[in-house]
Amino acid sequence: MIQLDNFKSWRNISKETKEKFLKNSTYMEYTKGTVIYLESEQNPLIYLISSGYIVLSKTSIEGKEKYLYYLSTGDFINQCAIDGKLTATTAKVVSDASLISIDKDILLKLMKEDFELNLLILTSLTHIIRRSQRQILNLGIYNTSQRIASRLWKLSRDYGKKIDDYTLIDAPINQTDLSNMVGASRETVNRFLKELENKGIVILKGHSIIIIDRDRLLDYIN
């Protein structure tokens, strides 16, 4: 029960539903680099991230992998399994992670019994839809610099860890990952990050990115 009570989003779910969920689920630990499932395969399981980070990606016709979202503790993945069709993305572990998996039919039954669980799953899907809409908007109207700045700002919002007056992006994301996420070359991303560093907006420390001034970063987007 402690596993689920630790997730803020589960606090309105009844004790009975939590017990049924855990009784019918499987807890697994995965090492960095493990592929949980591949795009376009049959997988009836829906996963709740207990710890760590997962990246969802899609592969283009040319075979290029495009990172879509980073997800972490408390997030669901593979909710699309609800309709019984093939997986929409590939899910890969980017830092050691633990996941709780449950069969879609069992989850659907629990959702019918508990409206709050139903609302939780719907909210998780809404979150993905909103992120997808923002990505489409970014690709449609933003230039490369704006896309990088926008992604940095959102990463600092979603995974930011305060260090004095600065914000560390506390997620296993390097410059190659960032270039994949914004659809630009690593060289372009590196050049823009150096520009931001020279202007005192970010600090590059090893593989870490520290945001000094989020407001000035926002100016690049606008």
TrEMBL record:
Molecular function, one GO term = DNA-binding transcription factor activity
What Gene Ontology terms describe where this protein resides (cellular component)? cytosol
Entry-linked Pfam families: cNMP_binding (PF00027), HTH_Crp_2 (PF13545)
PROSITE patterns according to UniProt: CNMP_BINDING_3, HTH_CRP_2
**InterPro entries assigned to the protein according to its UniProt record, in alphabetical order:** cNMP-bd_dom, cNMP-bd_dom_sf, Env_Response_Regulators, HTH_CRP, RmlC-like_jellyroll, WH-like_DNA-bd_sf, WH_DNA-bd_sf
| Residues of the HTH crp-type domain | 142-215
Q: What are the UniProt keywords, alphabetically? A: DNA-binding, Kinase, Transcription, Transcription regulation, Transferase
Q: Which ranges carry the Cyclic nucleotide-binding domain?
A: 9-111
Designated name of the protein: cAMP-binding domain of CRP or a regulatory subunit of cAMP-dependent protein kinases
Origin species, per record, is Tissierella praeacuta DSM 18095
